[in-house]
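Onboarding guide, step 5: your first structure request.
Type a short instruction followed by the sequence, for example:

Predict the 3D structure of this protein.
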Amino acid sequence: MKIGGNCAVETYQKIRGNRGFLFESKDISHIYGRLSLIGIDPVLEIKGKGDSFTITALNKRAGRYMEDLSNEDLSICDEFERGTGIISGKIFRDDDDFEEGERSKQKNISRVVRLFLNKFKMQGREMLGLYGAFSYDFVKQFENIPNLLPEDDVNDFRLLLCDTFVFFDHLKEVKEVIAYRESEEESLAVCEELKKRIEGHDVESEGFEVLNDKFDLEQKEFEALVENARDLAKRGELFEVVYSNTLRAKFKGDAFALYKKYAEINPSPYLFYFNFGDEQLIGASPEMMVRCEHGEVHMRPISGTAKRGEDPIEDHENMLELLQSEKERAELDMLIDLGRNDLARICEPGIEISDYRFVEKYSKVMHTVAHLSGKLRAGFTAFDSLISCLNAGTLTGAPKIAAMTEIEKNEKSRRGYYGGTIGYLTFNGDMDTGIIIRTAHIKGDDLSFRVGATLLYDSKPEAEFEETLNKARAFLTTISS
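The system replies with structure tokens like these:
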């Protein structure tokens, strides 16, 4: 149902409940900036961590899906139990007999996600599907990376099955409400009710306050990590590694008010506000993780960072310096090689590269990017392509497993959602995901915001620390103004 009314932010503010999301994309390059999507009133939630998972009904509409999951379907589990409005179980990881090409199909709790995607598969261009986030540690379901850091309370994945949307196509100037229900009459009634709320009076968001913000690592401590990375590279153990630093603070007020201000200051290709009820993710990510549409898989690795200038002349000079830097070129080339290797696992031969060293400019920094694309091989799905590319080399380094092992050895805390993935897997087989960077995670009154730097043998400690501050600057501006 087509409707009139306000922009995506104002629309979400009017209809948001205690769970839901807003995905936006601001025009940075020719492939971004066209669509926004709101999801509200999700049906059920799927959470998994370690060997355990839960499927929890969030409203009456969940009954259909819970009943459709038969005991035979759940035989993929090592154990499971049904309760009122909940299914819980365990799937123990087993990687004894898999080949590298079958990495994404290993036995672990990701099979619950795959079960939903297969069980409720649809044809055509549909939005019904799973929306949410996979944490940085989700990769440990598929790779033997040691657990050396203290445990945290972030799930390996947290997904909502969504069936009620407001969709914006800014190019065609179209906005419509879409509701998937048992009958056309019920769907129309939901759309009419939402239309009234959207076209009604504006609703003001509350304010917010961020207190006692402080980075975990002082400059000297982060520079020690840079020296460690330089030493690893000189000894030939790594080509590069991404170490990070976490800003922590206390948060009061409306998390969506923080999103509104942050998105205005830092327009990005993957803007998101995701409310899981007891925690929120507020992000302005510049980087696609993996996108899959009609069997075509895309990645857009980003590396190389320069500060935006105070005026157009300085901005242009900074861009030329970025393009002339051999270090920054080497960083991007490494990520392109990683991406090609990842896609080769699940795509037909012939990965295409375009937009090589295209410069994308953001509010406080600019980056060089490249675009990789390939066609899914028979027997693989969009979900396989996501797993194949875990974790993004932009956030780990190379070789990936060795880099992630060093991160586990040298960082002070688990990364949580930082370096993970946010987006959707629809039941028609499509997927769009962004990397969780430039993102605030709020749980209760605790806020964290993590930033990192790609470190090589010729990295300069002071410059790399400054790069992390540049990446954090848009968020720091948001919470300080």
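Each response can be followed by summary notes, for example: Residues 210 and 251 are 5 Å apart (CA to CA).
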